[in-house]
Amino acid sequence: MAEKFEVTHIESLLDEEESHQTQNEDSSENEDEDDLESIFEEEEISASSSSVETKKKKKALLEFRCRVEDAILGNYLLGKPYKYLSRSQSAKQKEILSGITLWGVPLLPSKGHQGTDIVLLKFLKAKDFKVQEAFSMLRNTLKWRREYRADKILEEKLGFDLDQKVLYLNSRDKEGHPLYFNVYEAFKDGEFYDKAFGSREKCEKFLRWRVQYMEKTIKKLNFKNGGVDSIVQITDLKNSPGPAMKELRSASKKALILLQDHYPELIHKNIVINTPFWYYAVHMLRSRFFTQRTKRKFVFARPTKVTKTLLKFIAPENLPVQYGGLKREKDDDFSPVDKSSEQIIKGNSISCIEFAVSETGSTMVWDLTVVGWDVSYKEEFVPDDEGSYKILLQNQKKMGESVRNSFYISEPGKILITLENATFKKKKVIYRSKAKPTVPMYIFLNK
Predict the structure, then answer these.
(1) CA spacing 20 to 30 A to 68: which of 121, 184, 255, 348?
(2) Does residue 102 contact residue 119 with C-beta atoms inside 8 Å?
(3) 10 Å Cβ neighbour count for 253?
(4) Does the structure show a pLDDT above 70 at 35?
């Protein structure tokens, strides 16, 4: 019965992997030729998969489990044990090894933790289901973590004041993956750059801080069946210092290789936005050190395509306003639960959005964003009573960022937003609204 359960469990994991791969292929269309080439490669791989291939993967996972189990119980997971250990020392070492974990998940398969197979499968995927190579990668990762003290790194005070300036976690994508942002604009400031990369020790400390942040991000993952066990990394190169800053370039390269070697399959997508032309050349040179699987995770977006690209992966309610979404920090008006609607404006045309309000004594709040901008908009309140006057809330204005506005409703009517698209291309408008009960200010003033 136990063996039947294990086989069924492995089948469900592999089915889930194939399902995710199919979803990724469908959602990772990109306008860049390099990424289209990657998509075609993925489609060929998907087309060639068969029941024979699935059986090979099941066999590889079973073999890998046995190999890890034997290595832990045989006391050689981290390499050959020291020859001259006493019996009590050897027993103690085996006891310690049997409790070994990775990212909070026990590695000993016989413990029956459902996250064990998920973690082992990540190493197998990274090595195309070659058991020996996956085992070597796991061993090297565990050795590196011990030498680098990665399990204790969250306790360290590294003294970097870079949170929210360079790295930050913000919301999740459509599939629930945490969004991990790298913003390089701050490094354009010379003093700030020197603080991070002014010496070799500072460069090493910066890399250690990147590892610390990765470990913090892993805490948000769920290594269980059906759980989200990888992240989406978004690198923003807007106003970045450029290729001349060799210390930043070297640290970024080391961080990417480190993620590939010791955090396999924890990056679901690696989206690089506001990509300048020089970066493509740098990436081509750097990618020589990447596996094909790592290369296929990259998606690039030029400055004019940032919002369009990110919305393929992230819902507007979860995309920060600085990237053309609707999410604002410390938002008292809306939450991600407040879903948005979409409307297409054809080229050289005018379109209207209406928010009808029948109840008075409330404040109507609305969000509005346009993918690609280049649209003019006007906002007004139109009362139901023909004897009342229209109220102009916003005169004709060109949109260059996400808009939020509000208006206190003292009589029934509607908020009317008029959008004019003077370009030849159609534009997508994303919007939402909410009526909030409000006590007028004059009531407080008259008390």
Answers:
(1) 255
(2) yes
(3) 14
(4) no
Cα–Cα dist 336/94, whole Å: 48
DSSP assignment of 191-240, as one string?
HHHHHHHSSHHHHHHHHHHHHHHHHHHHTT---STTS---EEEEEE-TT-
Look-up: residue for tokens 């082992």? 120
The single-letter DSSP state of residue 164 is: T
Determine phi and psi for 435, rounding to 5 degrees. Answer: -95, 125
Residues 126-170: tens digit of each pLDDT: 999 999 999 999 999 999 999 999 999 998 887 766 666 788 888
String of DSSP letters for 132-145:
HHHHHHHHHHHHHH
Q: Concatenated DSSP letters for 28-46? A: ---SSHHHHHHHHHHHHHH
Backbone angles phi, psi at 369, to 5 degrees: -145, 150
Residues near 240 by beta carbon (within 8 Å), at least 6 away in sequence? 184, 185, 187, 188, 276
Does residue 323 contact residue 316 with C-beta atoms inside 8 Å? no
3-state secondary structure at position 20: helix
Instruction: Give the single-character DSSP code of 165.
Output: T
Tokens of 22: 């199919």
pTM comes to 0.82
Question: Which residues lie closer than 8 Å to 106 by C-beta, 6 or more apart?
Answer: 99, 100, 113, 115, 116
Pairwise CA distance, residues 71 & 81, whole Å: 11
* Helices vs. strands in the chain: H and E counts, helices first: 13, 15
What is the pLDDT of the chain when averaged over all its residues? 84
State the residue for tokens 């506005």.
405
Q: 98: pLDDT confidence band, cut at 50, 70 and 90?
A: confident
DSSP state of 167: E
3-class secondary-structure state, position 393: strand
Closest CA relative to residue 298, chosen from 43, 40, 35, 37: 35
Q: Dihedrals φ, ψ of 195, to 5°? A: -65, -35
Tokens of 311: 């919305």
Name the pLDDT band for 99 (thresholds 50, 70, 90): confident
In angstroms, the CA 259 to CA 182 distance is 14
